[in-house]
Amino acid sequence: MYIELHAIQTFGPSNLNRDDTGNPKDSLFGGVRRARVSSQCAKRAIRKSHVFAQEIQVPPGTRTKTLVDQVARRLMAAGMDEEEANAGAEQVVGAVFASADKKSAKKTNVLVFISEDEINLLTEYVLQAREQGSFPGNMAKDLTKRLKDRSLAPDIALFGRMLAENPDLNVDAACQVAHALSTHEVNTAEFDYFTAVDDLSPGDETGAGMLGLVAYNSATYYRCVRIHWEQLLNNLHGDVDLALNTLSGFMKAFALVVPSGMQNSFVNQHAPDFLLAVVRYDNNGQSLDVAFEKPVRARGGSGFAEESVKALATYWDQVESVFRLNGVVVSALNPRQFELPSEELRQAVQPRLLDWVSVITDAVSRETA
Q1: 15-22 long-range contacts, Cβ below 8 Å, gap at least 24?
Q2: Does residue 101 register a pLDDT over 60?
């Protein structure tokens, strides 16, 4: 069973996701240049959001190279002196997360994505070894087994984990996230030439204290994610309630959370123009970005949002009428009340965000039961 989420969302002048030159990211699609927001950027915005955390009520995962310090601090809080805590933390972290030729280190070789529950297990392991007088001889194997049975944070269950140093702790991602692309052509970034005045400069001194350039663009984006329900449930050790809360929190965050890039300069918080969620009882789903392979054009001053929603609804009917194999559950949100050239989508429109979410979570819950 897969849950698909699709969105059309317009942003005014902003720089949501910068490349190495400071310009908004872009991509070539359908023969024209598009504005782009990377999947990594979108995932981080969701997993670090208050909306997601409030729903799941479980501490999110931590991605860090300083896991030794995290464990050592907990050991010192439990009464160990600093030297003993650092030594114990280095041993347990090195046994599981360091490469074979570097089993004791202040930092791991890669960013480790780890849950609060897993960090607590490492801490408890050191405290138990202290009571017993030494670490067991098969520490690495024993720790790996215990960590595999420990609870994952919901964001790790969604986005997965890859550890080259210890593949036994790899987690297959339950969520696929596409790069958001503008539905229309966006040729180049624009630039804001700005100056800052030195408030304490002498009265006879003219000119700016600082000059600079900020790149930005504006666009209507298509966004898409897919969640493999059984994989999410498996990653959360079969905890149906937590998996449903994770799905609900993710859907709300998908709708409400945007990347925070340069938000103080542009106030880039904009609600979606249109949301579509689908429950499929097979792996027959798809991204709908090909609806915009022919770039949308603003007609008669209508802007891009309305034309993008129409293109999405039209493409939905075209592909679903041909390729759908089984029944689906569809939920839509159309806050701007655009015309929808699809009877199925018109019938699926919900009045509020919470209703849009509950149609999907109720369907998943019924199927799981």
Answers
A1: 15/189, 15/214, 15/215, 15/216, 15/217, 15/261, 15/262, 15/265, 15/266, 16/41, 16/258, 16/259, 16/261, 16/262, 16/268, 17/41, 17/259, 17/261, 18/215, 18/261, 18/262, 22/214, 22/215
A2: no
- Phi first, then psi: what are they for 210, rounded to 5°? -155, 145
Q: Give domain status of residue 348, yes or no.
A: yes
97 pLDDT more than 80: yes
User: pTM score, two decimals?
Assistant: 0.91
* Maximal C-alpha separation, the chain: 79
Sorting pLDDT into bands at 50, 70 and 90, what band is 99? low
Whether 31 and 127 map to the same domain: the answer is no
Question: What one-letter code names the amino acid at 15?
Answer: N
DSSP string, 272-298: -SEEEEEEESSS-----GGGGSS----
Confidence bin at 187 (pLDDT 50/70/90): confident
Within this chain, do residues 230 and 318 fall inside the same structural domain, yes or no?
yes
Name the burial class of residue 321, with classes exposed (0-12), middle (13-18) and buried (19+) by CB atoms within 10 angstroms of its CB: exposed
